[in-house]
Amino acid sequence: MKLTRLPHPSPGPRWRWAGHGLVALALWAAAIAYAATAAPLKSITVAVSDNSPPWVFRDADGHLQGLGVDRWSLWEAATGIKVNLRAVTYRQAKDLLLAGKVDAIDFVSNADVEKDQLDLSDAYMPSNLVLYFHKSISGIVDAKSTRGFLVGVRRGGVCPSELREGGSYNLAPYPSFVALVDAALDGDVKVFCLPDQQAAYLLNRAGKAAEFRRSPPLRSLTAHWAVRKGNAAMKTLIAAGFARVDPAARQAVFDRWLGSSVDQPPVYLRHLAEALVVAAITLLVLLAWLWTLRRAVKRRTADLLAAKRDLAARVREQACLHGVFKASEDLNTPLRVMLHDVADALRTGLACADAASVEVDWDGQHHATGTAQNAGTRLSAPLLAEGQTHGQLTVTYDPPRASADDRTVHDQARGLLDLVAQRLATVFERRALQDERRELDRQMFQMEKLTTMGELTMGLAHEIGNPLGGMKAVAQSLQHEAALPDDVHEDLARLEAEIDRLSAFLRSFHGYAAQQAPAPEACALERILDDVLFWTRRDARSGKVRFEVAGLDTLPPLRADRHQLKQVLLNLVMNAIHALPEGGTVAIRAARAGATARLEVADSGAGIAPELLTRIFEPFFTTRRDGSGLGLPIVRKIVEDHGGSVSITSEPGRGTRVTLIWPLAIEDHDPIDPAR
């Protein structure tokens, strides 16, 4: 078996020895420039392919070995910087470098299709890209001649692109050189493409070199190490380190893995070496001057930055105060909206606005804006109104990284917080005065309405009272007619009772403006409600409304003015019927609650909007075109005059529920009088 002689990477003529020395001197000077501007590294990480013999591969025990391993060991010894070799596939090595997870990769070909993303070093080892084919085949001379053959290639290498350019597309990719040669030895592929050094090593190691032939070189290759595009500092550092490696030691590594050469390097031109030494000294002087200039610029820049920070703080403070005054100048703005805008303005005025939060608490209302991740510093200021504390203004911020400006940031935040707190205290006092004035205006308006209603009721009582008296007299006269049927007598009795109720209603209507005490007595709620349902049944039937009554038969009698109680129930039932234009259910339920009765009138209508519930008991306020706006105010007045209470709950789409709490009159109950 004949071993293939690998080309020697070192120069042949003797003059290259001096060249190495001068190049080393230049790179050493560049390394000094790099060291003057960057902190020294303790280690670097270099990604290498562990399937590239004799460059880097694994021995029988799985340890990395090869020319590349020894070469980086020399670099480590020359620089004192530890080299961490990370063995991966070639594709993974490039991905790691482009992702910034390694500092460099080694054994990159000058024909790499992605070399525009890399900064390559000078070439340090030549080789050739060759087609290998089984000895039973002939006629393989270039890429075109492989058409029709299945050609094995290493995935991510140079061969695939080279073969495709020649029109050969029937390719079988393998993950590594070893896997590719093993496939050829097993007969899976008869033709494969490899650099000649790797192919010669692997075929001879397997003892199968005589089984294959080789084509003329498809192209010449050179090996490089590379860094990511634009990382000039790392490239300079690595190049300077290799320049410091002893040439004899480097040559011994190449001789160990590639064989020794009989050529001896010549002496280089002395004048060129002297020129390079002078250039290096000049460069050192220039670097020293630049270092001094850089320190002076750095000091001046620090002064300018401090002045800029002070100016920015003043601008932020003025902008913050302007935002706070603008947000709080309109006293009609809702309090929550005003607090939100003030908190936002204060947060933007802080030096660390992105890492700050502001909380405003005022009489139970809380508003917060922003988020402080670490909650490192918390400042608070009380919010005063009329000399009393009504809340507090709190700022929480993450302090900047420890520096001389930390105290300044704290002082600026404290001063701004106090100014905003004073402004809010003034605004709250003004809003309180405005609220008091509005309440007085509302009370005055209410008194005017009550006065107007009193005058109106007096006129109504006069105009309607006389006809009602005549109607009552006719009804009473007809009741004495013996020829009338009993049901007619009963209806006339109901009519007389309704006339009495209307008369009492007029009196209570007048009494809404002029206080009039009720005449309470023990009343049976079931009987009074029966009259109410009798007079409302026509409206209920026409509106397809049905009644559900529960709990009245076991309820003790109420202490009430029967006419006013009937008026209350009639108003509530009619309101419930009007709330069901499409039909529905009105539920009337009663239950005893200690010394009181709990009455509920609920409908299944559309409900009342939340903003209207607060005004539902105001006189003359109504949502119906034909409404007077006095029904519910009269209801509340009658209930409160009897020592009870009334409340309304409603949910849009779910209906409305009116709840009465009415006192019982168990001691005054006369079981003989069923009308009560």
From TrEMBL:
<keyword id="KW-0597">Phosphoprotein</keyword>
<dbReference type="Pfam" id="PF02518">
    <property type="entry name" value="HATPase_c"/>
</dbReference>
<keyword id="KW-0547">Nucleotide-binding</keyword>
<dbReference type="InterPro" id="IPR005467">
    <property type="entry name" value="His_kinase_dom"/>
</dbReference>
<keyword id="KW-0808">Transferase</keyword>
<dbReference type="GO" id="GO:0005524">
    <property type="term" value="F:ATP binding"/>
</dbReference>
<dbReference type="InterPro" id="IPR003661">
    <property type="entry name" value="HisK_dim/P_dom"/>
</dbReference>
<dbReference type="InterPro" id="IPR004358">
    <property type="entry name" value="Sig_transdc_His_kin-like_C"/>
</dbReference>
<keyword id="KW-0067">ATP-binding</keyword>
<keyword id="KW-0472">Membrane</keyword>
<feature type="domain" description="Histidine kinase">
    <location>
        <begin position="459"/>
        <end position="666"/>
    </location>
</feature>
<keyword id="KW-1133">Transmembrane helix</keyword>
<dbReference type="InterPro" id="IPR036890">
    <property type="entry name" value="HATPase_C_sf"/>
</dbReference>
<dbReference type="InterPro" id="IPR003594">
    <property type="entry name" value="HATPase_dom"/>
</dbReference>
<dbReference type="Pfam" id="PF00512">
    <property type="entry name" value="HisKA"/>
</dbReference>
<keyword id="KW-0902">Two-component regulatory system</keyword>
<keyword id="KW-0812">Transmembrane</keyword>
<protein>
    <recommendedName>
        <fullName>histidine kinase</fullName>
        <ecNumber>2.7.13.3</ecNumber>
    </recommendedName>
</protein>
<dbReference type="InterPro" id="IPR036097">
    <property type="entry name" value="HisK_dim/P_sf"/>
</dbReference>
<dbReference type="GO" id="GO:0000155">
    <property type="term" value="F:phosphorelay sensor kinase activity"/>
</dbReference>
<dbReference type="InterPro" id="IPR001638">
    <property type="entry name" value="Solute-binding_3/MltF_N"/>
</dbReference>
<dbReference type="Pfam" id="PF00497">
    <property type="entry name" value="SBP_bac_3"/>
</dbReference>
<keyword id="KW-0418">Kinase</keyword>
<feature type="transmembrane region" description="Helical">
    <location>
        <begin position="268"/>
        <end position="291"/>
    </location>
</feature>
